[in-house]
Amino acid sequence: MLLLARLLAVGAVGLVAAAVALRLGGAAPPSHPHSWFIAVVYCLLGERVVAHAQRNPVGWCLLATGVSGALAAGATVLPDQRWLAWVSAWSWWPTYSLLPVVLLLFPTGRPPGRRWWVAVGIAAVGVLLPAVGLGWAAWGDPAEFWHQVFAGTARRGVPVAVAAVGFASFVVAMCAAMASLAVRGWRTPGGAQRRVVWWVLAGSLVFVPALGLELAFGEAWGAWLVAAAAFPVAVVIAIMRYGLYDIELILHRTLLYGFLGVLLIGVYSTVVLITTTRAPTQGNVIATVVVVASLAPLHKVLLRAVNRALYGARSDPYRALVELGRTLAHPMRQHELLPAVVSWVGKGLKLPYVAVHLDLRDSAPSAVHGAETGSTRHSVVLRHQGRKIGLLVAEARARGEVLGRRDVRLLEDMAGQAAPAVHSARMALALREADARFERERREELRRISNDLHDYIGPSVVGIGKQMGVALRTLEPADARARTLIAEALVDLETLTGTVRRVVRNARALDLGPNLTQAVRRRAESIADGLQVQVTPTGRLDDVPPVVGRAAFLIAGEAMLNVVRHANASRCHISLNRTGSGLEVSVVDDGRGLPDELPFGIGLASMKERCKALGGVFSVDQLTPGTRITAHIPFEPS
User: Fold this and answer.
1) For 96-143, what is each residue's pLDDT tens digit?
2) What is the DSSP string of 50-107?
3) Is the CB of residue 564 less than 8 Å from the CB of residue 528?
4) pLDDT digits (tens, 9 = 90+) for 309-357
5) Is the pLDDT score of 635 beyond 50?
6) What is the SS3 assignment for 426?
7) CA nearest neighbour of 354 among 371, 334, 332, 336
8) With contact defined as beta carbons under 8 Å apart, do 204 and 185 qualify?
9) Long-range contacts at 268-273 (CB < 8 A, ≥ 24 apart)
10) pLDDT computed for residue 589 by the predictor
C-alpha cells in the first residue's frame, strides 16, 4: 500500500514537472497554478499521512486530490489532442470537491457518528456527479466546451442537470463538513486532539470564502492560493505542533524546511519578476519558479558533497560520533585501539596528521595517522573520570590555516568519546611495561641464582666430596661402620652435584633472551638421547611476549621429554608458528602413538594447564604413525 502511495505521488509530481517543461518549450499555454500547486502539495502531504496511517482514508483522499490536480495540469499540455482536452474539462473538479470528504473523516478516518455517514455519501455524490456531468457535456467538443459555457451557448440537458445536482451536493456536503468539525471539536476531550480539530476548522473557514472569490473572480491569484493552501497549512500546523498521526520529529523538520524553501523560492521569484523590464506572463512565473526550485536542491547537494570532500564528517557531527562509536564497539585487541582512534579521526575530518600522546610531556606519540606537514596544531586533553590520560593532537588541513570552531568542537566531542578506549589502551600498555619489567627482574634474579649455584654451591659440594673421599681413605679397615656411612654420603653428594648442574642448566635454559628458537634447540640437544629433533620457526619470534615465550618453551620441552620416554620414536619435529593473534607450538613424532584411552599424566596435564592459564587451546591428536601435540597461546588473553 505504501509503495502504491509513493508511486502515485511521484507520478503526479513528475507529470506536473513534465507539463511545466513542455510549456517552457512553447508547446501550450500553462494551466492555472491552482492545479500544479494542489498536485505537489497534496501529493506530498497525502503520501506522508499514508506512510504513518495506511488504513486511514484521510491520507488517500489527500493523495487523490493531488493526483486530480496533476491530471488537470498535465491535460493542458497538448490542447490539440481531443482526449486531453476532454480530461481537462472535468479533472479540476475533484481538487475542490474532495475536501468535504476529508473534513468529514478527519482525523480518525470515520465521521463523528453513524448518522454522519449520510453526509459522507452526499459528499461522494458531490465529487462524482459534477465530474460525470462535465465530462458528459464536454464529450462532443471538449476544446470549445468552456468557451461555450462562459459565452452562454453551451447546450443544456441531462448532463447539466447531473452536474447541477452534484454541485448542490457539494454545497450541502461542505456545510455538513464544517458542522461535523464543530461537533467533533465539541465532543473531543480537551488537549491536543481538540486543538488539532480547531486548527483544521479554522483552515476550512478560510477555505470557503477564498473558494467563493476564486469561482467569482477566476484571475484573483490571491484567492486561489488561499483556497489551495488553507487546509494543508492547518494540517501541517497540527502535525508539527500536536504530533498528528504520530509523525516523528524528522517529518516536522522536513515540513518546516519545505515551507521555508517554498517561501524563499516565492520571495526570490517575486524579486526577479518585479525587477524585469516588462510585465511577466504566467509562463515567466512558472519558468522562474521551476529554475529556483531546481537550483536550490542542486546547490544543497553540491554544497554537501564539496563539504564532505574538503572537511569530512564536520558537516554531520552526529553521524561522525556514531560512526566513531561503532568503530570502537567492534572487537579489537588493545594494541589496535589507538591506531583505530587516530585513523578514524584523521579520515573522518580529512586531517593530514593526528596523533595520541599517552604521556602528557613532550614525548613520542603512541599512535599516529598520516605525516607531519608543519601546519598549525591543535591539542585536546583526553580525560577519563576527571583525570588527564593523554593528548589528541591534530594538524590543520593546510599550512597557514587553523582548525575552525566546528572542527575543534567535533574534535573535542570525539576525544570525549574515545577517552575510555584510550584509557583501556593506556592500562594495557602499562600492564605490558610492568610485565616486561617483571620479566627483566626475574631473568636477573634467575641469572644470579644460577651463577651462585654454579660458582659457589656447586664447587663447595664437589670440595666436600673430595674431602670426604680423603677421609674415607684414611680410615682404618676396622672402622667398617664409619666407612659405610661415608660411602653413602659420597653417593648422596654425587647425586646432589648432578642435581645442582641440572638446576643450573635448566635455569639458564629458562633465560630465553630474545631468541626463542635457539632456546628450544638447546633444550632439544640436552634431552634428545639419540632422537633426531628438528625445530622450525615461522614468522617473527623475537618480540613474542615473555610470558608466552616461556610457556611455549616449557610446553615444547615437556612434549620432547614425553617423546623420549614413552614414544619409542626416531624423529621429532617442533614448529613455532607466529599467527595473527598468538603463537602456535606443534610437536609431532613418528613413534608408536597413543593408547586407545589417553592417560592424561602429569606431563600432558601440566602442558594443558600452562596453555589454558594464558587463554590458549591445547589438543592431542593421534597420527599414523605418531602423535601431534598442539598448543595455541594468544598474545593477549581473550
Assistant:
1) 888 888 888 887 888 888 888 999 999 899 889 988 888 888 887 777
2) HHH-TT-HHHHHHHHHHHHHHHHHHTTS-TTSHHHHHHHHHTTTHHHHHHHHHHHHTT
3) yes
4) 666 766 666 667 777 777 777 766 666 778 888 887 888 777 889 888 8
5) yes
6) helix
7) 371
8) no
9) 268/292
10) 92
393, 346 contact by CB (below 8 A):
no
Alpha carbon 148 to its chain's center: 63
* Local confidence band at 251 (pLDDT 50, 70, 90 cut-offs): very low
Alpha helices in 217-333 (DSSP H): 221-242, 249-274, 282-311, 317-329
Distance, in Å, from the CA atom of 169 to the CA atom of 129, rounded to the nearest integer, reads: 9
For residues 226 and 210, is the Cβ–Cβ distance under 8 A?
A: yes
pLDDT digits (tens, 9 = 90+) for 560-578: 888 888 888 888 999 999 9
Q: How far apart are CA 9 and CA 95, in angstroms?
A: 15
Q: Measured between alpha carbons, how far is 112 from 67 in angstroms, rounded to an integer?
A: 27
SS (H, E, C) 165-211: HHHHHHHHHHHHHHHHHHHHHHHCCCCHHHHHHHHHHHHHHHHHHHH
> Could you tell me if 390 and 357 are in contact, meaning their C-beta atoms sit under 8 angstroms apart?
yes
Identify the helix (H) or strand (E) that includes residue 522. helix 516-527
Structure-block grid coordinates of residue 253: 523538520
Q: Which three cell numbers stand for residue 115?
A: 448518522
- Grid cell, residue 154, equals 453551451
When comparing pLDDT for 233 and 258, which is higher? Answer: 233
Pairing of strands 387-395, 532-538: unpaired
Identity of the residue numbered 1: M
Lowest mean pLDDT among 42-46, 278-282, 537-541: 278-282
What is the separation of C-alpha 73 from the centre of its chain, rounded to a whole number of angstroms? 42
Cβ pair 587, 598 in contact under 8 A: no
Report helix, strand or coil for 602.
helix
Tens of pLDDT, residues 210-221: 777 666 665 555
